[in-house]
Amino acid sequence: MNKCILILTFLLTSMLVHAQSGLIAGKVLDEKGETVLGATVSLEGHSKGGKTDLDGKFSLRGIADGKYIIKITYVGYEAKLINDIEVKQGKSEFINITLIKASKSLKEVKVTKTVKRESVSALLIQQKNLSTISDGISGETIKKTADRNTAEVLKRVSGVTIVENKFPVIRGLADRYNMAMLNGDILPSSESDRKAFSFDIFPSTLVENMVIVKAATPDRPAEFSGGLIDLTTKGIQTESFLNIQIGTGMNNQSTFRPYRTGRASKTDWLGYDKTMRVLPADFPTRSDYDKLTTAQKVDQTKKFRNTWGTSEMSTMLPFQSLAISGAYVKNLKKDYVFGVSSAVTYSRNNRTYFIDRNELNGSLDAYKFIDTSYRESLLIGSLLNFGLKIKDKHKLNFKNSFTLNADDNTIVRSGDFIDNEQFIRGSALWFANNQLLSNQLSGDHVFTKRNIRLNWGLARQQIERQIPDLRRTNYTKNYIQQDSLFRSNITTIANPNLMGRFFANTSEVIYNGHFDLSLPYKIKGQSQLIKVGTYLQTKSRSYDARVLGYVKAKSSTFDNSLLSLPEDQIFDEANIKPTGFIISDATLPTDNYEASSNLKAYYLMNDNLLLKKIRLVYGVRLENFQQELITGISARGDKKINKSNIDWLPSLNLTYALDAKTNLRMCASKTLSRPEFRELSPATFYDFNLLANTTGNPDLEQTIIQNYDFRYEYYLGKGEMITTSVFIKKFKNAIESTIPYGFLTTQKLFNYTNAADASSFGLELEFRKGLDFLSHSKSCIFKQLSLFGNFAYIKSEVRIETQTASGDMLAYKRPMQGQSPYIINTGLSWQDKQYNTQANLIFNRIGQRLFIVGNGEIPDMYEAPRNILDFSISHKFYKNKLEVKFTISDIFANPYVYYYNVDESYKIVSDEARFTSEDFTVIRNRVGTNFGLSLSYQIK
């Protein structure tokens, strides 16, 4: 890894030697906000000139510093002169330009504007003329922020809230009802146990744009309801650059304080381990292991290294981060442009969490545990993209990315198990590694004078998720025990959840292909568009686990004094013997499965502009989805799970332009959400954090969602806007995580099930407004301030009619799992362009969410609201090339609280262990406040 980073840095630095200087670059749009291909851009009074490419972009190079005027002409449109363009230090600001259709008069009309007014006008048109209800942020806007990764960028998009600094929540719906895409291809989940994608992986410097679609159109995948986030990484750039960033940070309850850790391998700092946390290569399968004699099992058990126990370290190190990104652009010959974009990021964060875990048995306390979790989180990301543009009408891109995120958790537990009349102590050593490799080849082509457009793409994505050697221990001491010794809970029957080792590996490969053809035509002189295409995806996954527990080799001759040995000594090689311990293989047939799925999607979409004020985007998408999972169930053989669905998914988006700044939108669509392989598999995994088992449900059905949206938009200019929205969503077979009937709180088993009928109704208010109207003084601070926010009220409801284990009928209503009843997302931004300083203060609050659905006998578990306040300030020095950024995140440091809603009022009044109402805290996690400092330098 070190060699790769050094080589990449050398190549990027070498390529920059050839970087061209003196640049005016921009994009030309029409009145609909669509890019204009073939417009002529010339420099008044000079011979420099060129044409816009299929993305509407142009670049004029080799220009000396100074002030210039450019002229833009295109057949059928009024010519436009843009003055006040200043090239300074070799470049100007990126310019967005809008052309207006010419009148029937043959006389040429020239419209003259300043560069500032023209860019504002173009931005307004882009926002106003989106084909559906969606929000986004462009690469040019991202450049002006201090954001370093896409999770930070998403915080600036209306209606999006970020959880855990990486997972987006859209319209109060998290995880399952959102979809992530990279360059038009569906991304797999970055998490092993949830349907979610971590957006802190990608550096913002290589983002071309981000679009968050909230209402479906036929040309996009239909597996979402909250929002579809489409991230486009950069291809061919207008200029070469190299950016280097280093950063550090701390957490006020973790950094520079003592901590505990398990044994580490030499490669942990790279996020993987191939030497220490490994299953011996020749360790037999369960069927073969069960046939061995006791002596042979002793020999096999001795092959495992003694990696148990934790060590106390004196000082937890600060956060560390390094990012290198760059681009190289080369004009090969006339009308041929080649570009390379690349980045490597590395971050390593150490945190300590203090967690209270409580449980009920009926109305009485069952246990009270205290966890201290020491976590080292590692993130490595890399991008390497190639692009070739041919004669402004053809573009080829080969985009590649590799990301690795790993967590090394050391959890130390102590407490009172009241139900068992015991004191307990134990630990878990939990290392997890996720790797995602994405390779994408795509082409964009424009043919004939009609500008028929063909877009195609092929992609391969591979994700590996590994949990190598998860070790768990549990010691107890009875209330009436005379001595002070804790003893391990080891018998002749294996219980890997208490004293055992767990190995798991998930490997998934996805192949994608898409083909889109856009055919322009006209009705009564108005430009129209019909679009057809297909999207194909095939996915295969294998999941393999080994579940091993330590047992007494022979009960009659066992040396009981071994049970009181500490964690780091109990499984020494000397204690692996016929009178001591051996491993028992508790792996079940369901702990392994093979799965695959195939998606074939076809669509037809029409984009019509009627009477100059009405835009109608409508059509239908057909998705044929097949899913198969094969897993063992017993010695009788394998269980095969087959799912097959053919869905017609129509959508309609109507936009009525009341005037140049105001829109009314109405959207209706049918979308869905499909079960993941893990949710279908009957395999069981014990969660040490929740003290519960999680298992899948082979009978799960996909969720069908009817979506209705109504929106009023008012664009004030300068990127300012006010919108109000109403949305209605109806869910059939909503997938939820529940606790089946008949299980007690101390025996929790989380399962997945379909709720037959659910609905969600929401009201949204979004705004972004500068505060310059508060003062007429040019030097007043209000000229530099802008206020933005998103507020939403959402009422969701699930109607339940079911039968308990005792045979009683149960009928009631409750909110949907994961749905927030309200969202507050607001902020204040300050920007002083004269001194190159920017600051942001952002506040988020998400209403209480149903975390786990109860079973009538066990109450519903909720996640309580948290107040999150983040602050950042950045300043640029040395000709805007050097930037320093300081951040404070989670200033209030409110704990994460999960509680039983015992009184069924769906309200929480405190975060203490027991509320004045009858609500009961199950988990209380104290996280602390983070402080960060980064330094970046850009070579242009």
Give an account of the 3D structure.
There is one protein chain. With 940 residues, the protein is mainly beta. Among the domains are: 1-129, Immunoglobulin-like (Sandwich), CATH 2.60.40.1120; 235-263 and 307-419 and 859-940, no CATH class. The chain is 6% helix and 57% strand. The protein contains eight helices and 49 strands. The strands form six sheets. The chain has a 22-stranded antiparallel beta barrel. A five-stranded mixed sheet has the order 3-2-5-6-8. Strands 9-15-16-13-14 form a five-stranded mixed sheet. A hairpin with a 4-residue loop joins strand 41 (822-832) and strand 42. The longest helix is centred in the N-terminal third of the chain and has 15 residues, at 2-16. The radius of gyration is 30 Å and the shape is globular. The two termini are 26 Å apart.
Task: Provide tags for this entry.
57% strand; mainly beta; globular; five-stranded mixed β-sheet; Immunoglobulin-like; 22-stranded antiparallel barrel
